[in-house]
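SEQUENCE-TO-STRUCTURE ENTRY
===========================
Question of interest: how does this chain fold, as expressed in backbone structure tokens?
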Amino acid sequence: MLDSKQCQAFLAVAETGSFEHASLQLHLTASAVSLRVQALERQLGQMLLIRGRPCQTTPAGEQLLQYLQRQRFMEQNFLQNLQGKQANSEFIKVVIASNADSLATWLLPSLQHIVIQQQIALEIRIDDQSLTHALLEAGQAHACISVEAQPLRGCSAKALGYMRYKMVATPTFIARWFKHGVSRQSLMQAPAVIFNQKDHMHQNVLLKLHGLTANSYPYHFIPSSEAFVHAIHRGLGYGLVPDLQLGAALELGELVEILPEAQTDILLYWHHWQQQSTPLQQLTQQICQNSQRFLHPV
């Protein structure tokens, strides 16, 4: 059997990235933490951590990390069902993996009532909507918002609705870069605004419509949903913006849709473990119901 103290030490190092931080978390010396991890490695006959700054898990260590994180979530769910609250806390902790655009627009308004009523302490983990389900699979989230339709083993998935994106720019930007119209040639010259390296939506649209690859046009990486929209409003570039963030900008003429055929609808799904605590069941009901006020229907 795995030794719980050794596993606790390994988990602390893997999640904090160092023996020093793990020692503070566990109220032990760094050498004591190291000895426990070494003992666990000897028992399993595998190196679990690559010692460095930060420490990283080996393939075997990653498997153990995911197992221990799932085990921790199962224990939390059990205690919440049994006791109604987290131990030593008036709040119930729920971890949700979400894409940044959902967090910036509809997620919190959809959850605010149940979060306040049930005293839920949210932990939101941000990743691209095509990758959030990996956090659920790894046991790092109770639920996630994803573009994946197929649920993981032991999980359920429900379609929430479409998030619509429109390609927009300011009139001043258009006058400078697209004065002769939006064409393959002008798109190769004009700077785009893209969320980050994991965001392939802009790239996929230009590849489909104009055969342009990512290295054929300039772009800014702005990894914040709010700053992303501000960058386009300030004329730094053009980009795909959720209609939920456009507000009245199109009607007021502050922004102009430059490529209507680039409109993209992303179908979002709510994934969660089938074995849910009662608060998470209530949260699931709320998000499935309230998201319909913001997203385009399936």
Observations:
- Residues 107 and 291 are 7 Å apart (CA to CA).
- The domain at 164-265 is CATH 3.40.190.10 (D-Maltodextrin-Binding Protein; domain 2).
- The first strand starts at residue 49 and ends at 50.
- The mean pLDDT is 92.
